[in-house]
């Protein structure tokens, strides 16, 4: 198998590289924002043909460092889109973080290559556009997120028309059980201390606010063509049941495994086959108990905000995503408190225009406006 990894230096990208090495897959291309130390290691490890770097200066630095190789370097967003147009691989894993992954998603689809999608923002911002383009091109989009991979697997247990609802599980993040008042004093170090998953800083903060689960609800709506009312979120602290589906006869089918993204990455690459995995075997006797609770939407208002955004539709989900990117960046930089993320994102979503049938330009404009709205609100 020959693959490409977009966002190869992030958590999902590095774990995808681990899966590729475990199975001996050829890696045709990689890309990242600017982490040239990791990119150089990956270039030499896999002898990749192409490498893209969003940051032009970093691209030039990398080009000098790997001048003894045959790897071709592409710089900037346009360069990465040019690189995608040259791909001949079987599957592209899009693990780019944030809105930056949208145009590469569309480029992969228009190239006609199977897409293993870890960039949830592509569907949050432009779900209808992405899914319709995939249908037009006859391209399969295989979910990489653990929850959506679980749903995808569970749906094979019954007929699609017999699906009653999706039970989307959430770890609850590091602050689960805290009241709205207690969240006032939560620090960055506390937000980054996730109890079960090892992830990048941005998605870890999204897990702490439950924004990540809101994004996943929107993603599931587009991936599986369901209504918001057909998705129920359940907090499952052990992160062993990655999601479930309920059918018309009230049978509930669940997918369980250890909280290790390499399992769902591998399944997206090998589907419909199942191969030996680098992930350890699940021992339920060591887990002991599996618990489920309803989310606290008063203490964590980002989840209902996401539901409102997708219900209102148009560019509101894109504004939600961009505002959250801006607010989380400010929090990571120590410029705002944790709870300020809630109000800043809510205000930006409320300010977004109502455009019911947005095109790509409308989506990108709304994203830029929402990002700027948050920055201006704090004088950034």
Textual characterization of the structure:
The chain is an alpha/beta fold and 380 residues long. The chain has helices at residues 11-23, 36-46, 56-65, 76-85, 102-111, 121-137, 146-154, 188-191, 201-209, 211-224, 261-270, 284-287, 302-312, 316-332, 340-351, 360-377, and strands at 2-6, 26-32, 50-53, 72-75, 91-94, 114-117, 141-143, 163-170, 231-235, 241-247, 252-256. A seven-stranded parallel β-sheet has the order 4-3-2-1-5-6-7, sandwiched between helices. A four-stranded mixed β-sheet has the order 9-8-10-11, with helices on one face. Helix 5 runs parallel beside helix 6 (121-137). The longest helix has 18 residues, at 360-377. The protein is globular, with a radius of gyration of 20 Å.
Offer a quick outline of the entry.
The protein has 380 residues and is an alpha/beta fold. Helices cover 47% and strands 15% of the residues.
What's the helix-strand series?
Answer: EHEHEHEHEHEHEHEHHHEEEHHHHHH
Please give the radius of gyration in angstroms.
20 Å
Shape: globular
Overall pLDDT: 96
Report the biggest beta sheet as strand number plus sense, adding barrel if it closes: 7 strands, parallel
Q: Give the amount of beta strand, in percent.
A: 5-15%
Distance between the termini: 46 Å
| Residue runs with pLDDT of under 50 for 5 or more positions | none
Helix content: 40-55%
Provide the spatial order of strands within the biggest beta sheet.
4-3-2-1-5-6-7
Helix/strand-derived category reads alpha/beta
Q: How many individual helices?
A: 16
Per DSSP E runs of 2 or more residues, the count of β-strands stands at 11
